Amino acid sequence: MKRRKIPYLIIMMAVLMFAACGESQEERHQRTKAERERAAAAERAAFKVGVMPTMDCLPIFLLKDSMLYDSTKVDIRLKMFTAQMDCDTALVGGSVQGSVTDKVRADRLRQRGTLLKTVAETNAYWQLITNKRARLKALSQFGDKMIAMTRYSVTDMLTDKALKDSKMKYPAYKVQVNDVNVRLHMMLNNEMDAAWFTEPQATAARLAGHFMLLDSGKDTVRMGIIAFRTADVSENRRDRQLSEFLKAYDTACERINRNGVQAYGPLMKKYMGISDKVIAHLPKLVFITSR
User: Fold this and answer.
1) Report field, pTM of the whole predicted structure over 0.85
2) What's the pLDDT band for 23 if we cut at 50, 70, 90?
């Protein structure tokens, strides 16, 4: 019996020593609170950019993943959205310093009191894709048909422009579908007569057999832009962060133009969730530097 008590006493002493050395609940609470505060402070100081799962954001994805900037000078953090309206909300609220957007949306934000500084144009273009089951080959056939777009955006403007002189017997219906992935899903599942897409969603829709009726890429005016909150980038610290961001952005554009978009397939899979087939069929795209 006495022999059995010795291991038992050793175990009890080890447990007591471990408990004495361990953190108390209050200490753990204080530690996690301090960690949360440090994380919140780092988030506030970081240079945050709103992005979408679209090809006009590819240089930003590349600069982030390749660390083309000096991370000791600027902490660039990407905030992913699938609807441009959510990017706008982040811009208005100041939870991001800048975002990829279009000129129509940026002008509306300015009119509503959010001052923005355009730092670069993008290569974004939009295609009107019609559902293969709808068999729409001309704008005059759009009477009583549904077109997926986003209000107060370039797709809204392009829809009005396209339908202005179409001479339809019945009006077409503009349906607000803000999420670019949902819009593509609706087209692939034959739930929409027509929709506006930029890349890579436009290529995915065409590969599924749907018909491209209009292409804004033929226009001379570029509508895609990158814009930052004027109030933010006017500060000395933020202005330096913007300078670092733009240097890295321009380097990323030059690399993609030199190597071609297909060289960045893994990056597109990661951020855009597209397949190898879509990547292989993407058109040649030239990215525009901020200079």
Assistant:
1) yes
2) low
Specify whether the backbone of 153 is left (phi greater than 0), alpha (psi in -120 to 50) or beta: beta
Residue among 187, 192, 127, 121 at smallest CA distance from 158 = 127
Contacts of 47 (CB under 8 A, 6+ apart): 74, 75, 76, 77, 97, 238, 241, 242, 244, 245
Which residue has better confidence, 2 or 220? 220
Written in H, E and C, the secondary structure of 231-274 is HHHCCHHHHHHHHHHHHHHHHHHHHHHHHCHHHHHHHHHHHHCC
Region class of 192: left (phi > 0), else alpha (psi between -120 and 50), else beta: beta
From CA 87, how far away is CA 51, in angstroms rounded?
7
Look at residues 98, 131, 129 and name the one whose alpha carbon lies nearest to residue 114. 98
Q: Using one digit for the tens of pLDDT, what is the confidence trace for 94-130?
A: 999 999 999 999 999 999 999 999 999 999 999 999 9
CA angle, residues 168, 173, 179, in degrees to nearest 5: 140
Q: Are strands 98-102 and 224-229 parallel, antiparallel or unpaired?
A: antiparallel
Q: Which of 143, 147, 134 is nearest to 209 (CA)?
A: 134
Are the CB atoms for 238 and 97 separated by under 8 Å? yes
Furthest C-alpha separation in the chain: 103
pLDDT of residue 165: 81
pLDDT in tens, 35-63: 888 888 889 999 999 999 999 999 999 99
Q: Within a 10 A sphere around the Cβ of 54, how many other Cβ atoms?
A: 22
